[in-house]
Specification:
binds 4'-phosphopantetheine, 6 helices, alpha/beta
Length: 161
């Protein structure tokens, strides 16, 4: 049985992430969405909020579960018995950083393999950082995130639409 992890900050979850989750859930037996709890990083949404937003959007996919971790990804993978990391590549600019992480993780644990999926062209420009930047100025984020989260994101910036 192939258990994979799709790790990230998901602050907030975007339509690009959802596309990756849907596609990768079809090529592995079980997919765990691993939400990084990075206390040093100032996140817009708390860990609990990020986890429950992902749960809300993935509850209809039977082989997907959501978990969270703090510390090294390879350590969390041992804990949950996962051996595959799924990452999305949007553009060539992602490649160098992703290659470095993938190789480091593989050196740390040679059983760990990283599988890269190219993001859907429709979302190749999209990132949580861009969503936050747009939202903070009251820009239209309805094409970037699930519609049910739009107001929740604006609310973080005290914007009501
Ligand atoms: O949402 P992101 O920033 O694309 O996610 C990055 C993430 C969570 C995959 C990466 O930062 C990570 O795995 N962090 C946990 C710490 C770790 O294991 N670092 C090793 C990389 S050398």
């Amino acid at each position: 049985m192939k258990r994979a992890i799709y790790p990230g900050s998901f602050d907030p979850l975007t339509l690009g992430h959802i596309d990756m989750i849907e596609r990768s859930s079809k090529i592995v037996d079980e997919l765990v969405i691993g939400v990084l709890h990075n206390s040093a990083k100032n996140s817009l949404f708390s860990l609990d909020e990020r986890v429950s937003m992902i749960e809300e959007m993935t509850k209809s996919i039977p082989n997907v579960t959501v978990g969270s971790f703090d510390g090294l990804l390879v350590d969390y993978m041992k804990e949950i018995d996962a051996t595959i990391i799924i990452r999305g590549l949007r553009a060539v600019t992602d490649f160098e950083y992703e290659l470095q992480i993938a190789q480091t993780n593989h050196v740390e644990n040679p059983d760990v393999e990283t599988v890269f999926l190219t993001t859907n062209l429709q979302y190749s420009y999209l990132s949580s950082t861009i969503v936050k930047e747009f939202a903070s100025y009251g820009g239209d984020i309805s094409k970037f995130v699930p519609s049910r989260f739009v107001d929740r994101i604006y609310a973080k910036y005290n914007i009501s639409k």
